[in-house]
Each structure stands twice: as C-alpha cells, then as structure tokens.
C-alpha cells in the first residue's frame, strides 16, 4: 500500500483548483447586473435577457448530479481539465455572440460543463491533502464560494460600465487556461480507478426533463403569477412526473446515473439537509438585501454592492484559522455557533427601518460574515465524513445539486413572499388613508385640486414603501428562526467527522 497522492507543489495545485472554482461561482452572478446592457446591445427585452442567467442555471443544475457517473467514466483529473477548458471556450464564444440565440447556446454549454467543476474540486482537494489538513482545504474552498458571488455584481457592474459586457466572459479565458494547465501538470500522475459504467439513458432523460422544467417554473413563476399561468401549470406537472420517474428508476436500477443510495450514510443525509436549508436561507439574504437597498433606500447598484460586500471580510480573514483548528472542536458546535450568529443578524435586520444608515447595514453584513466563516467548512466536512473516497465526487455533486436547487426555491419563494406581503400590508395601511377619512379631509380640502392629487400619490407611494419594509422585516424574522431551528438537525449527525478510519485506509490503499 502506498501513501495518498501528493502533487509536486501543493500550494500551486490549491491555487489552480481554487481559481477554477472562483471563476465558476463568479459566473453565476457576474452577468446579473449586465442584463439591461446585454438586452439593449442585442436588441431584446430585459425579461428575455434573464434567460442568460436561466440557461446557465438550468444546464448546471442538470449536470451536477452526473458528476459521480462522469468521474467513474473519465477520472477526476481528466474531467476537471476538460470541463475547465470547455468552460474557457464557451466563455470566449459568449463574448463573441452576435445575437441572443448564440449567447444562450454558449451560455448553456458553459453551465453544463460548470456543473462538475465544484464537486470534483472538492474531491481533488480532499485527495491531495493529508487527513489532518483536509479541513483547511475545505475552509479555503468555502471562502472562495462565499467571496465569488459577492464580487460578481461589483466586478460585473464595473466591467460593464467602464468597458463592455463582453469582457465579463473574456476574463475567464486566462484564468481558466492557467487553472487547467496547473491541474494537468500537478495531478497527471494521480492514479484513478476508471470504470465503464452503463449509460442510464432513462435516468438521464427523466433528470433533464424534470430539473429543466422545474428550473423554468422557479425562474418564471413569479413573473407569470405562478399557477394562474397555463405554462407554469403544465411545466409543474411535467416536472413532478419526470422527477417521480427519476426517483423510482434510480433507486431500483443496478447502475444508476445518480447514486441516491448515498443517503444510506447518516452524516451525508443530515449534513446535506442542513446544507440545503442553511444555504437556501443564506441565498435568500444575498438576494433580498441588494433589492431592499435599491428599492427602499434608493441605493445605486454599485453602492448596494458596497453595503453588502463586508460579509466577505471575516471569511477571508478567518479561513486559515478555521481550517487549521476546527478539528479540535466538535464540528456540530462550530456549525451551531455559526447558525446562532446568522440567526441573530437576521433578527437585527428584522428591526431595520428606512431611516437606517449605510454603516449600520454594512456592520450587520460584516458580523454575518462570522457565521459564514464558521458554517460552510464544518457542514461540508460533516456531510462528506462517512463517504468512501470513491463516493466523495458523487456525494459532493449530489449535495451541491440539491443546494443549488434550494437556492432557486429560496429566490422564487423570497421574492414572491416579499411582493405578496407588501401588497397585503399596503392594503391594511391604506384602509384609513383615503379622501373620506374625517381626520384627513380638512388637510386635503385646504389644498388645490392639483396639489391634492399629488399629495395622495406621494402618500400612496410612501405607504407602498412601508408595506415593503414591513414585509422585509417579517421575512428576516422567519429566516432567523430557520437558522436557529437547523441547530437541532445538526445533532442527527454522529462523529467522527475528521479523518474517518475507513476513508483514510481506503485513501492510503489508492
């Protein structure tokens, strides 16, 4: 038996793998702020331009669960290198696109090859680091996962305003080529177990149809008034049937394309459950804060980015220490502490009003970063802790897929709840604010007719803003309790979480 594989330069390998992950995660958000510019440049409506984001998300969501099959078929190193190079090529073609059809096609390819990159990066980092230092590797990856979505809107806005929207895709080319070259040179000697698994066409078709339809429902549901739209109803039925067929087929097939039997592992099940709900709540915060800052406090897009960016400060500063010392603690305690911090900062936002200043918002974001620094790495380690080495890529892909789907649900549910609750509160607040209210009548009669109409319009707008503010506070109150409630779920997992004996022995055997 030989010791686990060590690349010639561990630091350079880590940089290469992390850069690829940063590029991949960055591209989930960098295009968002550029959509109006892209729409104008390519001659389509802003609503049509949202498919630039949707096409990427749909194809990435579909390819994520296929990671286990692809790693068995091609090996982790070869899969990582080819996915990174194809990501570079599709990014370059996105930048050259002359119409929306071309952009959507290349963006879909970009999403499809982006799917396996993150879980394979996780698996490779675990493979090249000794057991005692794997926590540090996962902490670094968690930091990249947190910082990239924050940097995306700021970087995308700056590039679009000062250069061209095409450069949000072109910047991937040198980064991706460097990451692929480093991975190939450093990891090509790594021995891997290559199999020839049978292609599960039935599972693949059911997955593509089910997830594709569900992603479109989540993306378009709020705009189309959900089940009042025939398209949403049809797609929901199609998605439900396809996903039911997928679940039944994958659980009974001898060689499934997505190994749902991974849920036989207690820690993987508990950790995935915690990761999905905590990430969904975290995603909701990241979505709602910039919208609220622009809608209620009238911040510009770039200043909304600056106000929310401090959330990345503490994860960057604490990553090394969390990775180095986390194994000395019960990881459930670290994650529980993280959820307490996340819950408390949500309760603080539940008390925000429209007179709050920039610094107060930024400081709450800053302290939430403490929770972010402490929750990704322990939760990741818990969910991967009782998987065999050859199951890690598949488990990571499956949990990342469910986490991504949870984020999509969170985005749709949050925006829907915010709009609907705001309408409800507007109606309640406006019940007594009308021209026939005896308290308001004398004031209105003292104004000229034109002034009266203008005053009522201003009053209605003010009531609308108050309605959105109350709804915002309510949502954050709920999010706070979600984080607190997840603490109980953490204790379904059982130690040991670091350097599981069977996993280490198998890793050394490889």
Characterise this structure.
This protein is an all-alpha fold and 510 residues long. It has 3 domains: 1-197, MFS general substrate transporter like domains (Growth Hormone, Chain: A, Up-down Bundle), CATH 1.20.1250.20; 200-256; 261-510, Growth Hormone, Chain: A (Up-down Bundle), CATH 1.20.1250.20. The protein is built from 22 helices and no strands. The protein has helices at residues 10-26, 35-42, 46-49, 51-63, 67-74, 76-96, 100-114, 117-128, 134-162, 167-170, 172-187, 201-220, 230-252, 266-295, 301-308, 313-325, 331-349, 358-384, 392-430, 441-445, 449-490, 501-509. α9 runs antiparallel to α16 (313-325), α14 (266-295) packs parallel to α19 (392-430) and α16 packs parallel to α18 (358-384). The longest helix has 42 residues, at 449-490. It is globular and about 85 Å long.
Largest sheet: none
The name of the CATH superfamily of the largest domain reads MFS general substrate transporter like domains
Tell me, what's the shape?
globular
- Average pLDDT reading: 82
Q: Ranges with pLDDT <50 over ≥5 residues? A: 499-510
Q: Give the tally of structural domains.
A: 3
Helix content: over 70%
List keywords for this structure.
22 helices, 510 residues, Growth Hormone, Chain: A, mainly alpha
List strands and helices in order, with pairings.
Blueprint: H1 10-26, H2 35-42, H3 46-49, H4 51-63, H5 67-74, H6 76-96, H7 100-114, H8 117-128, H9 134-162, H10 167-170, H11 172-187, H12 201-220, H13 230-252, H14 266-295, H15 301-308, H16 313-325, H17 331-349, H18 358-384, H19 392-430, H20 441-445, H21 449-490, H22 501-509
Helix pairs in contact: 1-8, 1-9, 1-11, 4-7, 4-12, 5-6, 5-19, 6-7, 6-8, 6-11, 8-19, 9-15, 9-16, 9-18, 12-13, 14-15, 14-18, 14-19, 14-21, 16-18, 17-18, 17-21, 19-21
């Amino acid at each position: 038996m030989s010791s686990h594989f060590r690349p010639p330069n561990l630091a350079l390998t880590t940089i290469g793998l992390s850069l690829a992950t940063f590029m991949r995660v960055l591209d989930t958000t960098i295009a968002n702020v550029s959509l109006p510019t892209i729409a104008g440049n390519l001659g389509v409506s802003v609503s049509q331009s949202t498919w630039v984001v949707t096409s990427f998300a749909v194809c990435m969501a579909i390819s994520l669960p296929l990671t286990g099959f692809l790693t068995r078929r091609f090996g982790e190193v070869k899969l990582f290198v080819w996915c990174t190079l194809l990501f570079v090529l599709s990014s370059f073609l996105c930048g050259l696109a002359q119409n929306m059809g071309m952009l959507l096609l290349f963006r879909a390819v970009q999403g499809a090859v982006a799917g396996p990159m993150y879980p394979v990066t996780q698996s490779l980092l675990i493979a090249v680091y000794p057991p005692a230092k794997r926590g540090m590797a996962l902490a670094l990856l968690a930091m990249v996962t947190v910082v990239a979505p924050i940097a995306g809107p700021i970087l995308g806005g700056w590039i679009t305003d000062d250069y061209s929207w095409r450069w949000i895709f072109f910047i991937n080319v040198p980064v991706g080529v460097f990451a692929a070259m480093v991975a190939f040179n450093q990891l090509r000697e790594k021995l891997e177990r290559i199999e020839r698994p049978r292609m599960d066409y039935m599972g693949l078709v059911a997955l593509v149809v089910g997830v594709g339809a569900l992603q479109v429902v989540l993306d378009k549901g709020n705009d189309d008034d959900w089940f009042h739209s025939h398209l949403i109803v049809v797609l929901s039925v199609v998605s439900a049937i396809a996903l039911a067929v997928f679940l039944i087929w994958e659980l009974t097939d001898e060689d499934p394309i997505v190994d749902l039997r991974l849920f036989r592992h207690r820690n993987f099940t508990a950790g995935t459950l915690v990761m999905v709900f905590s990430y969904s709540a975290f995603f909701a915060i990241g979505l709602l804060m910039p919208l609220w800052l622009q809608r209620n406090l009238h911040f510009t897009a770039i200043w909304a980015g600056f106000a929310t960016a401090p959330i990345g400060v503490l994860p960057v500063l604490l990553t090394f220490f969390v990775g180095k010392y986390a194994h000395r603690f019960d990881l459930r305690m670290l994650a529980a502490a993280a959820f307490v911090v996340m819950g408390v900062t949500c309760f603080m936002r539940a008390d925000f009003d429209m007179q709050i200043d920039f610094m107060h918002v930024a400081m709450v974001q800053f302290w939430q970063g403490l929770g972010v620094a402490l929750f990704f790495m322990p939760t990741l380690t818990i969910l991967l802790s009782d998987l065999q080495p050859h199951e890690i890529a598949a488990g990571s892909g499956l949990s990342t897929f469910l986490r991504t789907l949870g984020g999509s649900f969170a985005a749709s549910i949050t925006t829907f709840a915010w709009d609907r609750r705001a309408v409800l509160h507007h109606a309640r607040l406006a019940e007594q604010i009308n021209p026939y209210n005896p308290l308001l009548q004398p004031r209105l009669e003292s104004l000229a007719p034109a002034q009266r109409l203008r005053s009522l319009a201003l009053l209605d707008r003010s009531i609308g803003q108050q309605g959105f503010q109350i709804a915002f506070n309510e949502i954050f109150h709920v999010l706070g309790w979600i984080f607190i409630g997840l603490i109980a779920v953490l204790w379904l997992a059982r130690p040991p979480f670091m350097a599981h004996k069977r996993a280490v022995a198998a890793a050394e055997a490889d």
